[in-house]
Amino acid sequence: MPNLLLLSMLAAFPALSTDMYLPALPTLQALWGISVVEANMSLVVFFLAFSLFLLVHGPLSDRFGRRPVLLGGITLFIVGCGLCAVANSITMLIVARVVQAAGAAAASALALALSKDLYEGPMRQKILGYIGVILAVCPMLAPFLGGLMLQVASWRWIFACQAVLALVVLYGAVRLKEPLTEFTSGGVLAVMGRYRKVLGNGRFMAMTLAFSVMILPHFAFIGGSPDIYITGFGVSEHVFGYYFGVNALGIMLGSFTCTRLVVSFSSVRILFVSLFGVLAAGLTLAITGASTPMTMAALMFCITFFIGVSRPISNNMCLEQVTTDIGAASSILTFTIFSIGAGSMALIGLDWPSKPAFIGQLAVIGTLIPLILLWVMLRFFGRRPEQAE
């Protein structure tokens, strides 16, 4: 399996684990007599557990190698899929999702670490962009496929399908040649020491925290889209897949656009433009809300398009700040993104007067913070963000 395809499929594990069964959430609410908040807990708990295990897999891969950690993680994910498929209550489903999240975390953390291992400089930035393009295909197709599956089969087959897809990735991991030649040493205390070293990297942590909040509106939309479209606008599970696909199309086109722009323009300039793009669309959504599904889809397309443009650049800028302990740094970066995302998904489950308007407010917050950081770096430190210490 080509490295680019393997990295893309590894990075797609979070989307694979959530987006395919989004159309089934209203079905589970009716089947088990649970509320929107309770149903969303299967999403929120997944991302919380996912974020926690990210901090485990990264240092483990520095200590024992990328390949063995990857093989163990994918196998655990497949087991989690099986447990989800046989769940008979929301409690059992949430427990199974924790197992699934523990395995998915290995794939997601090592996707970033492997990109640092296998590629350098501008090429890595382009590879991250290409991964974003391929990655977007999964959330674009997953809800659509999940909706189709619900028309002909039980929701349980959605998780069975996830297990089959994971088996394909497992084959790629078996064929992967271990990229590390030098390994860390020591036990738990040594791992904690390496995290302390990465956490002490001020530029890395500042950029990681600031750029991670950019994801707020995207995760809020993932958590709130079934309620917004199916319950609020009254569209069917099948049609919901199309509207959700528009959101994923924005990410894909944004990432693809990034791969073209980085050839001719500076990363900082592209990042500024993309941030202002998200800010403009977010303000519009926050002020006007969305009275129709088409309006919601159009504004979310703009938001996710510019997020798609920014993510390869911001991720690369963060990784450029570290030269050692790449696995630990990748874990912290991905942990921060998904922890903030989990919080966003929990918030959108609350009873807001207008969930579309709230997503717009999150978009404004998610752009102002990184814009302030970039301005401070350029104004007071006189150094470009992509430059390492």
UniProtKB/TrEMBL annotation:
Protein name: Drug resistance transporter, Bcr/CflA subfamily
Membrane topology, from the record: Multi-pass membrane protein
Keyword Membrane: yes
Subcellular location per the Swiss-Prot or TrEMBL entry: Cell membrane
Keyword ATP-binding: no
Domain Major facilitator superfamily (MFS) profile: 3-384
GO molecular function, one term: transmembrane transporter activity
Gene Ontology terms: cellular component: plasma membrane
Transmembrane segments: 33-56, 68-88, 94-115, 127-149, 155-174, 204-222, 242-263, 270-290, 296-314, 326-350, 356-378
Organism: Pseudodesulfovibrio aespoeensis (strain ATCC 700646 / DSM 10631 / Aspo-2)
Domain of life: Bacteria
